[in-house]
Design goal:
By secondary structure, this protein is an alpha+beta fold. The protein has a domain of 214 residues: Beta-galactosidase, Chain A, domain 5, CATH 2.70.98. 31% of the residues lie in helices and 25% in strands. Strands 1, 9, 10, 11, 12, 14, 15, 16, 17 and 20 form a 10-stranded antiparallel beta sheet that branches. Strands 8-7-13-19-18 form a 5-stranded antiparallel beta sheet, with no helix packed on it. A 5-stranded antiparallel beta sheet has the order 21-28-29-30-33. 52% of the residues are buried. The protein binds beta-D-glucopyranose. Beta-D-glucopyranose (BGC) binds next to helix 4. Beta-D-glucopyranose binds next to helix 4.
Length: 757
């Protein structure tokens, strides 16, 4: 590792070389490209690893309802075959020296270099570079430099787009070889450096049109290429002789479109006519990254490794976000791998959106629009299950259809409905975007409140309102009643709907009238929601200090951690079957603690301490979603050492492959969770009552923390040093910014104005 903007890999981990590909992913929200080796590799040919937002094929599993779908591994647009004196350049032990792979997070590029030794001993230096444009969604660039070090060499380079790729079938970081899986693509056309493929496993599968422009500059000037005919591949071959120590340079631009954009081939042809050049495209790309980082970077003083790890998490989060397209959202593994099939879950709203809401609100707006677009499907889903309003799918691709393999997730894990409402309300408060609320938000809130109303059951014997048969964030308790997280969040959901109604009636009366007519909203409905929300059972222990995960948690048998959690593997991968979990007090991932982090104003410090002390030892962290909430809570409670330990679990989760499955994609909820650990934990940020609150709890290893926050149209620069916080209003919003820092109320209204607390 060199500086805090660069992630490096050296030497080459031959047996696990695909394991780290996910770390070196590049993308722009439209396309995500793993850091695979461009040159063909024996045994793993055709794997590539390029995904496009919204490009799904028929999956291998049986879905609970509907059809199982998966994100398609699309053509490898960076495919290369390199031969030196007739011998293929392959990465092999003893053939490679000086190997280095780097991810430049500041500029959004990946580079790789090594010296290869042929069987007769001649050495060749190879240097690769690539990027997926942040300035133009449909372009990417690749560069290759080849230098013979020991004598002249006959070089043969074929550069192409390879559509013979297959799915990965990689679940864990196993040693090679890895068996390539299903193939989704059928080639329809391939000529003049252009290729059109179609996802043939779906009846109306997306078409992908891609083209390349390749330039080879040999030692004596430009080298003309010849098209290579090969089924499923559009490629061009360059053959030339290169003297010792002279460098041949290849640069290639790739253009890509899909039928989701319109007529993909026509768009491709038009784009290829423009005649772009690599260097100016790369400069525009770097400028786009500089502007992203200006708002999103977090500076840590005194801990360069933490700084690098934190930037890695933010970098990956930003580059996968499909901000340009509200027909899709951000999947659990982004566009960096195939696990979870590219689907979106609750953790999108609860773990990833906060980062965007406070640094790039338009991205959140787009992902919430996605939830509005899929509202009709959520309504249908609710009706199918005999409920009302809208029930969002636990796992959805691009059309909101429930994609979960088993009913367990889909029917019971309904907290996702309230999680969406929470994120929407958080976005609205943080931005003051009434227009969004009027056009989309209010409708989502009314329909989700209706869902809860139909899902809440009034028990005439106990005289309580209950939510029965659910699965909370602790997914080891398969079916419970009155999961505290679900009930609290459902109650909030109803409150937000009532609040939106007030706003709408006051500020948008005509739009509200239209909406109520369209939704056939009965005037008595809101009062009924209010009654249900008020009566909803929130389980606590006898003394009232401990919030209970559900109404049986306290009565379950203690779990023998020493026996059940012996190493880093998940408890369900050990010898205790899943079905047995409900017998024990075992928490798969943070549940009550996450809820308290989301609604901190509702709990006393004593209640939070009690929850942390009770649940933390019972939590096995068998999901990457567990560390961040613990980091946030521990920091807010002033438990610096624990908070820092949990922060490191988040920040290094993928870099150190803590969950042993980074090979199948980065853990996107945890990427967002890392931001939460720092900003909501160490910096103590949360909003309540239109006031932004901050309270520093920096770990001892950090001297200072600097970051920016977007809040109600304003941009605030925050610096925390020890217990001191300085806030500067870099860009004023429409109203003065009101903050509460460690109990002190501050108001900033002029550009450049600052306050210290
Ligand atoms: C977690 C879920 C999460 C899913 C996708 C699972 O491991 O337990 O809560 O939604 O991953 O990120």
């Amino acid at each position: 590792m060199t500086d805090s903007w660069t992630l490096t890999e050296t030497p080459c981990a031959f047996n696990r070389r695909l394991g780290t590909d996910a770390l070196f992913t590049l993308g722009n929200g439209y396309m995500g490209c793993r850091g695979f080796f461009e040159e063909e590799q024996e045994g793993v040919e055709g794997l590539g690893g390029i995904y496009m937002a919204g490009v799904f094929g028929k999956g291998a599993l049986k879905a609970w309802k509907g059809m199982h779908r998966e994100l398609v591994n699309t053509p490898n647009v960076f495919w290369l075959s390199i031969k030196v004196d007739g011998e293929s350049v392959l990465v092999r032990p003893r053939r490679i020296s000086g190997y280095l792979r780097t991810l430049d997070m500041r500029g959004g590029t990946m580079a790789r270099s090594f010296t290869w030794k042929g069987s007769r001993g001649a050495r060749i230096r190879l240097e690769f570079e690539r990027f997926v444009s942040a300035a133009n969604l449909h372009l990417a660039g690749q560069r290759l430099r080849i230098t013979p070090l020991d004598g002249p060499a006959r070089i043969e380079v074929a550069a192409g787009i390879d559509a013979s790729v297959r799915q990965h079938n990689m679940e864990t970081t196993l040693p090679l070889p890895i068996q390539p899986g299903r193939q989704h693509l059928e080639t329809r056309f391939s000529r003049d450096g252009m290729i059109e493929t179609r996802v043939a496993t779906l009846p109306r599968g997306v078409r992908i049109a891609e083209g390349q422009e390749v330039r080879m500059l040999g030692p004596k000037g430009p080298v003309a290429g010849k098209p290579v005919a090969f089924p499923g591949r559009a490629a061009e071959r360059f053959v030339f002789t290169c003297p010792r120590n002279a460098t041949a340079r290849m640069s290639k631009l790739v253009h890509f479109f899909t039928s989701r954009d319109g007529n993909a081939m026509a768009l491709l042809r038009k784009s290829m006519k423009k005649g772009m050049d690599y260097d100016s495209l790369l400069s525009a790309h770097r400028r786009a990254w500089a502007s992203r980082w200006k708002m999103a970077d977090i500076e840590i003083e005194g801990a360069p490794d933490d700084q690098r790890a934190l930037r890695f998490n933010l970098f990956q989060l930003m580059q996968a976000c499909p901000e340009h397209d509200s027909r899709v959202s951000l999947g659990a593994r982004g566009l960096s791998g195939e696990m979870h099939e590219g689907s979106v879950f609750w953790d999108n709203e609860i773990f990833k959106l906060p980062f965007f809401t406070f640094t790039r609100p338009n991205a959140t707006r787009s992902m919430l629009r996605f939830r509005h677009r899929t509202l009709p499907e959520a309504r249908r889903h609710a009706r199918d299950l005999w409920f009302e309003g809208a029930m969002y799918a636990w796992k959805s691709g691009d059309d909101g259809v429930e994609e979960t393999e088993m009913g367990v997730g889909a029917y019971y894990a309904i907290h996702i409905v309230a999680d969406i409402a929470y994120a929407l309300r958080q976005y609205w408060e943080a931005t003051g975007d009434d227009d969004f609320m009027a056009r989309y938000g209010a409708e989502i809130l009314v329909e989700t409140a209706r869902f809860w109303q139909s899902r809440i059951y009034y028990d005439p014997i106990r005289k309580t309102h209950n939510i029965l048969a659910v699965r909370g964030p602790n997914e080891y308790d398969v079916i419970v009643n009155n999961n505290c997280y679900t009930n609290m969040m459902a109650r909030e959901n109803i409150r937000y709907a009532l609040e939106a109604m007030v706003l709408m009636k006051k500020r948008y009366p005509a739009a509200w009238r239209r909406l109520s007519v369209r939704l056939k909203l009965d005037a008595r409905e809101p009062a009924a929601w209010r009654r249900s929300a008020r009566g909803l059972l929130i389980c606590r222990d006898r003394k009232g200090g401990l919030y209970l995960e559900d109404d049986m948690y306290l009565h379950r048998a203690p779990f023998d951690m020493k026996r059940g959690k012996t190493d880093g593997r998940r408890v369900i991968d050990g010898n205790l079957p899943y079905e047995a979990m409900a017998h024990y007090q075992i928490t798969k991932q943070s549940d009550v603690i996450t809820m308290m982090n989301l609604l901190p104003w509702m709990f006393t410090t004593g209640q939070m301490r009690a929850a942390y002390a009770f649940y933390e030892p019972k939590t096995v962290h068998d999901s990457s979603l567990s560390y961040a909430p613990h980091a946030v809570m521990a920091a807010r409670l002033g438990m610096k050492r624990e908070a820092y330990r949990y922060f490191r679990d988040c920040a290094y989760l993928d870099i150190a492959d803590i969950q042993l499955n980074t090979i199948s994609g980065l853990h996107f909820a945890n990427l967002g969770g890392t931001w939460q650990a720092v900003i909501q934990g160490f910096a103590g940020l949360y909003q309540h009552g239109n006031i932004l609150r901050l309270a520093p709890h920096l770990p001892r290893a950090w001297k200072a923390l600097r970051f920016r926050v977007c809040y109600r149209g304003a941009i605030l620069r925050v610096e925390m040093r020890g217990h001191k916080t300085a806030v500067t209003l870099e860009r004023p919003g429409a109203e003065p910014s009101v903050l509460m820092i460690g109990g002190r109320r501050i108001r900033l209204s002029r550009k450049g104005e600052s306050a210290t607390a």
